[in-house]
Amino acid sequence: MNNIPELYKEWLALQPLTEKKERDINQQFLVDFNYNSNHLEGNTLTYGQTKLLLLFGDTMGNAKMQDYEEMKAHNVGLEWMKSIAKDKEKMLSEIFIRELNKIILVRDFYKTSRDGDYRYQIKVGTYKTRPNSVITSTGELFDYASPEETAQLMGDLVQWYRTEERKGELKAEELAAMFHYRYIRIHPFEDGNGRIARLLVNYILLRYNYPMIVIRTDDRDNYLKVLHQCDQLTGKIPYDGANATLEQTKPLVNYTAAILENKLATLTKFVKGEIPDFIETSDDTVLTSANVSVNVIQNVSVKTNVIELITQKPKITVKEMAQLLSVTERTIYRQLDILKTENRIERIGSDKTGYWKIT
C-alpha cells in the first residue's frame, strides 16, 4: 500500500485532464460503478444493458422495468453525491444521507418478510422502524443496530466523520473504509444500505481529491470476507461495530487501499497514453490494460496481516489467524517461520501458554 502516496502525487500532477480524457474516465466509471453496486444487491441488468441505458437511454432486453428504474435512480444518486462532495464548504450530514437513500430507492414500496408470512412497507429516506439482521454462512443471526439505537448512532457517526475530516490525520482510504464499516454495522435503513455505503466511500475519496473506485460484483466473496473479518475483530455488539477502531477495520482498509492503488495506477497510465483504454468490469470478467489483479484481496500481504494480528492480540493462535485471514494453517506457519528468520517476531514461552512479541 506504500505506492498510494506516490501514485497520488503523480495523479495530481497530471491535472487538469484534457476534456476528452475526463469525459472518457467519467463515462467509464458511470457504467462500471452503477452496474457493480446494483448487481451486488441483485439487479439483473447485464453490463451491456446498463451501458445502453445510462449512456443512450435504451431499455433493450427482457429485464424487469424495476431494475431499469433502480439503475437510473442510482445514477441520479451518484451524480448528486458528486456535486455535494465537490462543495468543500458543505459538511456531511444525516439529511444528505437520508436524501441519498430516498433518491436511489425512488418511492415507498412493500417487501415480504424473510419467512414469507407478511409484507411490510419500506419508507424511503426514513431510518428503520424494525430490527434488521443477516444470516451468516454458519447459519447464525447477526444483528445490526436496533431501531431505537439508530438515530443516536447515525448522529455520532456523522459527527465522528466531520471531526476526522477536519483533523486530517487519517488517510483517505482509512477514513473511507472505517466509515463504510461503521455505517454497515448500523444499517440505518430498511433497504439500500450497501449501495449507500459504497456511494459514501466515493464521497469521501472525492473530498480528498482521489478518483472514485468500484467494488466489483465478481469480487463479492472477497468483499464479504473482509467485512466478516472486521466483524470478528469487533464482535457482535452493534454499538462496538458502529465505533470500530482503525485496527479493527484493517481488513477493509487494506482491501479498499488495494482497489484504490490499482485505480490510480490504471488511470495514470491511461492519461499518459501508456494504455489505449480500460474497463473495470464486464459481465464475466475483469479487463484492465494495467493488469489489475482479478482478485484484489491477494494484493494484501498475508505476512503484513499476520504482524497486525499479533500486534492486536499477542496470544492469538495459529488456528485463529488462519480463520481470520481465510488461509490454511500451513500458510500461517510458513509466514511465522519467515518472520522469525527475519527477526521480526519471537515466541515468548511455550506454544500453549506463551505469546508473540514484535521485535
Give an overview in words.
The two termini are 22 Å apart. It contains 14 helices and six strands. The protein has a two-stranded antiparallel ribbon. The chain has a two-stranded antiparallel sheet with strand order 3-4. A two-stranded antiparallel ribbon has the order 5-6. A hairpin with a 6-residue loop joins strand 5 and strand 6. The chain has two domains: 297 residues, Fido-like domain (Fic-like fold, Orthogonal Bundle), CATH 1.10.3290.10; 59 residues, Winged helix-like DNA-binding domain superfamily/Winged helix DNA-binding domain (Arc Repressor Mutant, subunit A, Orthogonal Bundle), CATH 1.10.10.10. Helix 1 runs parallel beside helix 11, helix 4 runs antiparallel to helix 5 and helix 4 packs parallel to helix 8. About 6% of the residues have low confidence. It is mainly alpha-helical. Helices cover 56% and strands 6% of the residues.
Question: What is the makeup of the main sheet?
Answer: 2 strands, antiparallel
> What's the rounded overall pLDDT mean?
88
Backbone structural class: mainly alpha
Number of domains: 2
Oligomeric state of the chains in view:
single chain
CATH architecture level-2 label of the largest domain: Orthogonal Bundle
